[in-house]
Amino acid sequence: MSKAATIAAGVVAALTLLLLADWAVLSIRVPKDDKAVKALQEKTKQDASFAPELAALQKRVTDYRIARTLRDTWAGYGLLVASAVFLVLAKRNLPRHIPGAPQKATRGDSGGHLHRSRGPAIAAVEALDLAFVEEAVTRIGRGREMAIPLLQAIQSHYRYLPDEALRRLCELTEITPAQIAGTSSFYGQFRRSPVGEHIVKVCHGTACHVAGARQITDELRRYLEISEGQDTDALRQFTIEEVACLGCCSLAPVLMVDDHTAGRLTPNTAPGALKAFEKEPA
User: 255 forms bridges with which residues in the sheet?
Assistant: First the structure.
């Protein structure tokens, strides 16, 4: 994040805290002031000599509330401006490239190991066709309330949410980068990284866990050479997912490759469940 965006974020936080503090103070002071005024009004009804004191109290209360209202109004305007500046700067700072470019790799059958080519890794990512984003916006709408349907359409088309597509979405609609970040991270249905051609679901339910599901998963990740923190291999053929239960407890430990089930696995036999789905690189 740039220095300017950091400053804008700090201003937003400071003004937000100021408004919250004012609200907290007023929520305590207003009832007390009203109670004091009411009590003095009752005294004034019985003894007119309290009238000057009542007038002075009412003036102090009124002046205080006017001053607070003016300050909060200007703070509110400042918060809106700072928020707008932050969103503009944050949008400019979105990454321009998809992290984690794929590597050129080949898999061999020897011992279930994956062998990589000795040539340099492929760093470039194919240019993304953004025509679908424009078509989806035209079809679904440009309002902020259309964020979820638009993200669902983009993920359905690309199988994940590419950064380029999200930037284009922000350019074409009222949706902000902050809204996209919040929505895509809150709902588990959205992916921000590329997904493999085949989804491998490894059951980690009780029966499978006891039967060695963790070892199965670790062996598949080793076989596919999936790095720590990632779930998809470099060739984007397989994505590993750990699921709670596949309903095949009698076959534990079990996994599914797309709609195909393989059970009673061991770390040695688990990679074999992927063989039929593997493709040799061009």
Answer: 202, 262
Task: Name the DSSP class of 120.
Answer: P
CB 94 within 8 A of CB 171: no
Closest Cα to residue 140, out of 158, 152, 128?
152
pLDDT at residue 141 is higher than 60:
yes
CA angle 184, 185, 191 (to 5 degrees): 60
Tens digit of each residue's pLDDT (9 = 90 or more) over 205-245: 999 999 999 999 999 999 999 988 888 888 888 999 899 88
Query: What distance in Å separates the CA atoms of residue 29 and residue 31, rounded to the nearest whole number?
Result: 6
Alpha-carbon span 11 to 159, nearest angstrom: 38
Measure the CA–CA gap between 242 and 202, rounded to whole angstroms. Answer: 5
Tens-place pLDDT, residues 96-133? 444 443 443 444 443 444 443 333 333 334 578 899 99
How far apart CA 99 and CA 160 sit, in angstroms, is 13
Which residue's structure tokens are 């470019």? 101
Q: Quick check: bond before 271 cis, omega within 30?
A: no
DSSP 16-55: HHHHHHHHHHHHHHHHHHHHHHHHHHHHHHH-GGGHHHHH
pLDDT band at 92 (very low <50, low <70, confident <90, very high): low
Q: Which value, in Å, is the radius of gyration of the alpha carbons in the chain?
A: 30
Give the tens place of pLDDT for each residue, 30-40: 888 888 888 88
